[in-house]
Write a structure and sequence with these properties.
The complex is a heterodimer of chains A (about 280) and B (about 110). With about 280 residues, chain A is of the alpha+beta class. Chain A has nine helices and seven strands; from the N terminus they run ααααααββααββαβββ. The complex binds zinc ion. Chain A: This is Translation initiation factor eIF-2 beta subunit.
Chain lengths: ~280, ~110
């Protein structure tokens, strides 16, 4: 059962500080499943289990997961995780899975985790599989299936170009993964880095100034938070639309359908640097 | 309840902080070589920029000046990357809300 869940392998790697807080669920072979359900239980039983922030569902943590080894700051990650848990619970509830989780609860809490001979009680493992079958069929994104490498963001490749410029080689690729117009992303980079630049013959971005891949990463991360991730479900499978008639941009989520407006990119004040203005 | 419903009741969440009235923008720009410049745009009118500049220059031991921009008003310029320190100053000394301060750059 664990093999066909479609979990991103990078997700699994990250979860090390995790404990099974519910003794009766020991029989479950897949820790991820436990997590999801404990998330549900928490909601249902309201305060039955507290202080288990560590055991949140990993699935909606899109940003962290997809950036993979780009290592989010610890602090940030913590707070993100907490938010995710609640969001995820809401989503699950929204998706109409209460009934299943309810029966699961009973089975687990009464300690009847996996003996099928009890009358009228479906074995815990079967419930789990059923739950995931339904979830996968109807809401594949929630079951952790996010169509493979599509949302894995490659690390930015930056080289120095001479002594004053930086070559950002894979902007196009990154924009493509994020499903954004490269122009939009580049406009953001210019505004945030307080610089300008051009595109070379191989569609690479040439930026004025020296920038490290790490710095580019932190700017990209902010771009993703502001212009890519859905704030409701944290998915990065979103679309940026421009409302005809006005100049507002809307971010609409392809997973949960939520829409929010995003601010347009403003360069703001730019100081006169380098050579004096030619008069 | 159907599991494949697409419209989301939470559609309006998480957006309350994306369009506030006015932000203070703290930016960094590279100058020649490895030198940088910090700019502070959007400090509310009621504050005396000259006095603030004087304190900042002394506290951070850096040079600085005020530039008037036709659209964006008066902007403080400081030498070096003073973004975090400026932000701290604005919140602790001037009592401005951190929510209204946007730090840009890398
Ligand atoms: Zn969404």
């Amino acid at each position: 059962m664990s093999d066909d869940l479609g979990f991103d392998p990078s997700l699994k790697k990250k979860k090390k500080s995790k404990k099974v807080e519910d003794g009766s669920s020991e029989s479950t072979p897949v820790p991820e499943l436990d997590d999801m359900l404990s998330g549900l239980k928490k909601k249902k039983k309201s305060k039955k289990i507290d202080g288990d922030e560590e055991t949140n569902s990993p699935v909606p943590d899109d940003l962290t997961a997809s950036l993979g080894d780009l290592t989010l700051k610890k602090k940030k990650k913590k707070s993100l995780k907490n938010v995710d848990a609640t969001d995820f619970e809401q989503q699950l509830e929204e998706a109409g899975v209460e009934d299943v989780s309810g029966s699961n609860n009973n089975a687990t809490i009464d300690g009847e985790s996996s003996n099928g001979d009890e009358e009228g009680i479906i074995p815990y493992d079967d419930l789990l599989s059923r739950f995931f079958d339904i979830l996968k069929k109807n809401n594949p994104e929630l079951a952790g299936d996010r169509s493979g490498p599509k949302f894995r963001i490659p690390p930015p490749v930056c080289q120095r170009e001479g002594s004053k410029k930086t070559l950002f080689a894979n902007v196009q690729e990154i924009a493509q993964v994020l499903q954004r117009n490269p122009e939009h992303l580049i406009q953001f980079l210019f505004a945030e880095l307080g610089t300008s630049g051009s595109i070379d013959g191989e569609k690479r971005l040439v930026l004025k100034g020296k920038f490290q891949p790490k710095q580019m990463e932190s700017v990209l991360r902010r771009y993703i938070i502001e212009y890519v991730t859905c704030k409701t479900c944290k998915s990065m499978n979103t679309e940026l639309k421009r409302e005809s008639g006005n100049r507002l941009h809307f971010l609409s989520c392809k997973v949960c359908g939520s829409t929010r407006s995003v601010s347009s990119i403003k360069t703001g004040f730019q100081a006169q640097v380098g050579r004096r203005k030619r008069v | 309840m159907s599991m494949n419903q697409q419209n989301d009741p939470f559609a309006d969440t998480g957006d309350s902080d994306s369009q506030p009235t006015s932000y203070i923008h703290i930016r960094i720009q590279q100058r020649n070589g490895r030198k940088t410049l910090t700019t502070v745009q959007g400090v509310p009118q009621e504050y005396d920029l000259k006095k603030i500049l004087k304190v900042l220059k002394k506290d951070f031991a850096c040079n600085g000046n005020i530039v008037k921009d036709e659209e964006l008003g008066e902007v403080i310029q400081l030498q070096g990357d003073q973004r975090v320190k400026v932000s701290e100053f604005l919140t602790t000394q001037l009592g401005l809300s951190k929510k209204n301060i946007k730090i840009h750059g890398f």
